[in-house]
Design goal:
Belongs to the CapA family. There is one protein chain. This protein is an alpha/beta fold. Helix content is about 20%, strand content about 25%. Strands 1, 2, 9, 10, 11, 12, 15, 16 and 17 form a nine-stranded mixed sheet that branches. Strands 3, 4, 7, 8, 18, 19, 20 and 21 form an eight-stranded mixed sheet that branches.
């Protein structure tokens, strides 16, 4: 595994990246159920959270002090970048495009999230028409104030330092989770042309997570090239070590933090460090989202159980312990990916944990599509300013030649089964339309 660490924010200081996102008309994720705000440690964190922009500005010094404590470096001034976002389309039940947009409810934010996204694998496995229309069937499902995906590859030309060396002929990867051009042995590396960032923008994504095992496949240069490509198309990103990305949506601030098990990302194996980063995010934002690339890979890895998981000799963390720890620290939503299959969802202290959203897109057919490996989806969640639950839904998707499309309920059915099986008391409940209902005790 290539362990070279990509560059951090200028000067090597802890990175708090702030992005101003204009609001747009939409309707919230469907399904609102009364839910009592959790008590205890999480509620204490919530009371300390700033509620207005002025209060957030007053807390900037605290952020810098916390950031310096985490990384042992001087605090850094937040960097503002403008990003225009088109008005999203609303959804009817089951993920079909609605006919009429509705004004957003004041004091709420609607988030959309997917699992693993690959746009192809250069030079041999690229999608038809250079990727045009790859996401055409799922654009309505991604319509939200903030749409996020896990970008499972660099967007770069060949830097000459691919972690696997020269590619070998395409073949099935270990565990049957993927098929792509690989190097010697079982080494797998991905990259797509930088221009393909336009497809992510056109799909409706606003922010991409880079905390995963393939971000550094083509070294530091590949990471820099990826961020330049995303910048060029008005897309934001998160996932570098010590990085907290803050997005302003209307009058709310949403912090997104990416975690994985690798040197170039916030590390989910060290819970004390992970929770410190989340507390930094809490000090900066109204709502905090954790993106986590965690858990073992494979079609037989859909179950969530306590304890560490390993894949190909690598510790992929203890997903349950990590997710619950970051919620204790103040996270309002945990979005998991990495196993390449859907996993169940649970509510913990009133916050939703999605342990894996599965495979979402794989241009050029670089991921396996048989069985549950081809099933993924879009998680749509609406949260209030204090992070409490307003409503949510899951729009299941299936891939055909790597192109995602709504799956007529298959993904929601699978997710319902997994959540009930693995979390009998705390599992998310899904109705026939895919709406997510918190359990009586979550």
């Amino acid at each position: 595994m290539d362990t070279a660490e990509p560059p951090r924010t200028p000067g090597g200081d802890p990175g708090v990246r702030a992005v101003r996102v204009p609001g747009a008309r939409h309707r919230p994720a469907t399904g609102e159920w009364p839910f009592v705000s959790p008590r205890g440690r999480h509620a204490d964190v919530r009371r300390r959270r700033p509620g207005r922009i002025a209060a957030l500005a007053a807390g900037a010094l605290l952020v810098g002090v916390l950031g310096a404590a985490v990384a042992g470096r001087a605090p850094q001034e937040a960097r503002w970048q403008a990003a225009a976002v088109p008005a999203p389309t609303t959804l009817a039940a089951g993920g079909r495009a609605g006919a009429v947009d509705q004004a957003p409810e004041p004091g709420t934010v609607t988030l959309a999230a997917t699992g693993d996204v690959l746009l192809g694998n250069a030079p041999r496995r690229l999608p038809a028409r250079e990727g045009a229309g790859l996401f055409a069937d799922v654009r309505p499902a991604l319509a939200a104030d903030l749409a996020m995906g896990n970008l499972e590859q660099p967007l770069t030309d060949d830097t000459g330092v691919g972690k696997c060396g020269p590619p070998a002929p395409a073949r099935a990867a270990s565990g049957g989770a993927a098929r792509e051009a690989a190097g010697p042995g079982d080494c797998v590396q991905f990259r797509a042309p930088p221009a393909y960032a336009a497809h992510l923008r056109d799909a409706g994504f606003h922010l991409l997570n880079q905390a995963n095992n393939h971000t550094n496949d083509f070294g530091e240069a590949g990471v820099r090239n990826t961020r330049r490509a995303l910048d060029r198309h008005g897309l934001r990103y998160t996932g570098a070590a010590d990085e907290v990305t803050v997005v302003e949506v209307r009058d709310l601030r949403v912090a997104v933090v990416g975690f994985a098990v690798h040197a170039w990302s916030n590390n989910l194996l060290r819970l004390d460090e992970a929770t410190a980063v989340v507390r930094r995010a809490v000090a900066r934002a109204d709502v905090v989202v954790v993106q986590a690339h965690m858990g073992a890979e494979g079609a037989d890895r859909a179950a969530v159980r306590p304890g560490e998981e390993h894949f190909a000799g690598e510790n992929r963390g203890d997903p349950m312990a990590f997710a619950r720890a970051v919620v204790d620290a103040g996270a309002d939503l945990v979005v998991g990916h990495g196993p390449h299959v859907l996993r169940g969802m649970e509510f913990y202290r009133g916050r939703l944990i999605a342990y894996s959203l599965g495979n979402f897109a794989a241009g050029g057919g670089v991921l396996a599509e048989g069985g549950i490996s081809g099933v993924g989806g879009v998680l749509r969640v609406t949260l209030r300013r204090d992070g409490t639950w307003r409503g949510g839904e899951f729009v299941g998707t299936a891939m055909s030649a790597g192109r995602p499309a709504p799956d007529q309920g298959r993904g929601a059915d699978l997710l319902r089964t997994l959540s009930t099986r693995d979390f009998p008391r705390t599992g998310a409940r899904l109705d026939v339309a895919g709406r997510i209902v918190p359990p009586v005790r979550g």
